Each structure stands twice: as C-alpha cells, then as structure tokens.
Amino acid sequence: MAKILVIDDDAKVRSEIVQILTVAGHVVLDADTGDEGLRLFAERDPDLVITEVVMPSTDGLEIITELRRRAFQGPIVAISGGDATRRAVYLRLARMIGADDSLAKPFSASELIEAIERLRDRRERR
Q1: For the chain, which domains are there?
Q2: Phi-psi bin for 28: left (phi > 0), alpha (psi -120 to 50), beta?
Q3: Cβ–Cβ under 8 Å, residues 35 and 106
Q4: 54-102 confidence digits (pLDDT tens)
Q5: Where does residue 10 fall: left (phi above 0), alpha (psi -120 to 50 degrees), or beta otherwise?
Q6: How far is CA 115 from CA 18, 33, 35, 39, 102, in A?
Q7: Which of 52, 103, 112, 120 has the lowest tally of Cβ within 10 angstroms?
C-alpha cells in the first residue's frame, strides 16, 4: 500500500483514478490544482505522485520540476490527454524533466495499476 497524490483539474478523471487506486488498497490524496497539489505534498508526504501535465496556473511540468527541486525521490507519473501529437510532446517533456513514467489518456485501470506496481518494484530493488 502506498500513499499516492493525484493532481488533475478534470474532476471526472481524478475521481476515476482515486477510485481505482483506493480499490487497489492505496491511500489516495487528490488535488484539483497544481498549487493545491504542492500544498498537499508538503503536508502529507506522499510516496508517489500522479500529475496531469496540462492544467491552468501551475501545470504538471512545473509540479515535476518543483518536486525534484525539493529532492523528492519517489516516483512521479505524468498523465495527459487531448490531441495525440501534443500529448506525446508533453509526456516526453515530463519524462525529460523528472517524471518516471507517463500515461496517455484515456488509460485503463490495469495500465494505471501496472505502472504503479512497476515503479514501486523498481524503487524497492534500489
């Protein structure tokens, strides 16, 4: 079981991710803005962060940069939807600046769980 912070401005997507992770046995914190996500991160010290890349105000790229600046060593998963070409560029950028994995929306529950398990396994082997 991990404590996972989910940051996404799309309430429906965020709710679905929270439900998937909760059913899988994780403790889930969620935020609808990047600023709220950074506040929760500082207060609750999550093991893993999932963040949408494209959001108003503080976006996912800024979140990833800030978490790595704060020396967060836990896994970060970047997620993004929309136009396939733009989505691919955003997710590639997210990986370049510190995301450990990325998922293109829409993704399945099994894809999300597999990504988290893969990252947690990798971390435990270190």
Answers
A1: 3-115 (3.40.50.2300)
A2: beta
A3: no
A4: 999 899 999 999 999 999 999 999 999 988 999 999 999 999 999 999 9
A5: beta
A6: 15, 23, 25, 25, 8
A7: 120
Q: Bridge partners of 104? A: 80
95, HSE (Cβ side, Cα atoms, 13 Å): 10
CA distance 86 to 24: 31
Residue 101 makes CB contacts below 8 A (sequence gap 6+) with 75, 76, 77, 78, 95, 115, 118, 119
Tokens at residue 15, please? 């709710």
Binning the chain into helix, strand and coil, the percentages to the nearest 5 are 50, 20, 30
Q: Which two tokens stand for residue 102?
A: 């990325």
Amino acid at 115: A
- Torsion over CA: 99, 104, 107, 111 (sign): negative
Each residue's pLDDT tens digit, 108-123: 999 999 999 999 877 6
Q: Where are the beta strands (DSSP E) in 25-111?
A: 27-31, 48-52, 76-80, 101-104
